């Protein structure tokens, strides 16, 4: 039985302009080299759905947003059920996703369950398997195109470890986004060595100069 891994009861950082909580879903269909949520990804979780609902009940009037993260929240069978519980309590819902489960996202968006999405653009096609340990690039692209097609409210972000992605990669990824019609901010998050991660990575040996990025999109930096 799939469960939720943990809940962060309060954050002002994870959902733009919202006071929120983060529900961390166990399990993931990628194994990104820089991912430090190893415990979350490898876990089946330990929090039952009814416990999450009780938490939501206690936060009514105290929070205005809930973030679903992971792991990959859309890969967890509880995703749609809990999204409905969140919306039935009138919270706004933000979803952090790698974009690999478009059918789940379509269903959730069709039911008006999601208010905002943070979509992870892991790597260009040639480097995608090396970075994510998966062959899910085309699924990501399908999700990106879908969100653009329906004019959904979302951001695109990329975690940068300079030994895996360089300025030319980011320039290419920005160009892909622009050519598909994305006009929002492109957020770059610097890899921070916080201990254990799937690739046993430490801080990058290669340098990374964001000023060398060629982009028609506004580049926004986090942790740089």
Automatic annotation (TrEMBL):
Domain Radical SAM core: 15-224
Keyword check for Iron: yes
Essential cofactor(s): [4Fe-4S] cluster
Keyword DNA repair: no
Major enzyme class: oxidoreductase
Keywords, alphabetical: Iron, Iron-sulfur, Metal-binding, Oxidoreductase, S-adenosyl-L-methionine
Taxonomy, superkingdom: Bacteria
EC assignment: 1.97.1.-
GO MF annotations in UniProt: iron-sulfur cluster binding; metal ion binding; oxidoreductase activity
Pfam families, sorted: Radical_SAM
CDD domains membership: Radical_SAM (cd01335)
Name of the protein in question: Anaerobic ribonucleoside triphosphate reductase activating protein
Record organism: Campylobacter concisus
Gene: nrdG
